[in-house]
Specification:
- With 152 residues, this protein is mostly helical.
- The protein folds into two domains: 6-44; 55-151.
- 78% of the residues lie in helices and 0% in strands.
- The chain has seven helices and no strands.
- The longest helix has 34 residues, at 66-99.
- It is flat and about 75 Å long.
- The chain starts with 5 loop residues before the first helix and ends with a helix.
Length: 152
């Protein structure tokens, strides 16, 4: 009769009344968090380039003439200006929502403005690579190039 021993009573009471991992559904929490982590990991994994080529080699492979590059650069400039103006509108709308104390919608508008700004920087980075005729530029090179241009 294991139940009547003091050690067995305490152990049985702990397992039935104080089973915290079962209350929290620890196994399900662990499975959910590991599944979420497996979904997020590929986003932050650095992707290696499949081709190692210069800008001239890539433009020759894609049969791009300077006029195509100029049109693409003009298109990227227009897109960056469009996304920047949309981000300003979203930011103004965010301020309006915060003024009227609609906090959740204001935070969502801030997220939308942030997404537009990310798209602006994306377009500007591609424009930088086209203007400087270089592939595989780093963020630091882009930032220093953008700063050098603004100081001139």
């Amino acid at each position: 009769m294991k139940f009547f021993r003091p050690k067995g009573i305490i152990k049985g009471a702990y397992n039935t009344f104080a089973n915290v991992p079962r209350w929290l559904s620890w196994q399900q929490l662990h499975l959910s968090s590991s599944a979420l982590l497996n979904l997020i990991k590929p986003i932050y994994r650095k992707k290696e380039a499949t081709r190692k080529e210069t800008f001239e080699q890539a433009s020759k492979r894609l049969q791009l003439v300077p006029e195509d590059l100029h049109n693409r650069a003009r298109n990227l400039m227009f897109q960056s200006l469009l996304y920047f103006s949309l981000s300003l509108l979203a930011f103004a709308y965010m301020l309006y929502l915060f003024w009227h104390l609609d906090l959740v919608a204001g935070f969502l508008a801030a997220l939308v403005a942030g997404l537009y700004l990310i798209k602006v920087f994306h377009c500007r980075f591609w424009l930088f690579q086209i203007k400087h005729r270089r592939l595989g530029c780093t963020w630091r090179e882009w930032w220093s190039g953008a700063l050098r241009k603004s100081k001139k």
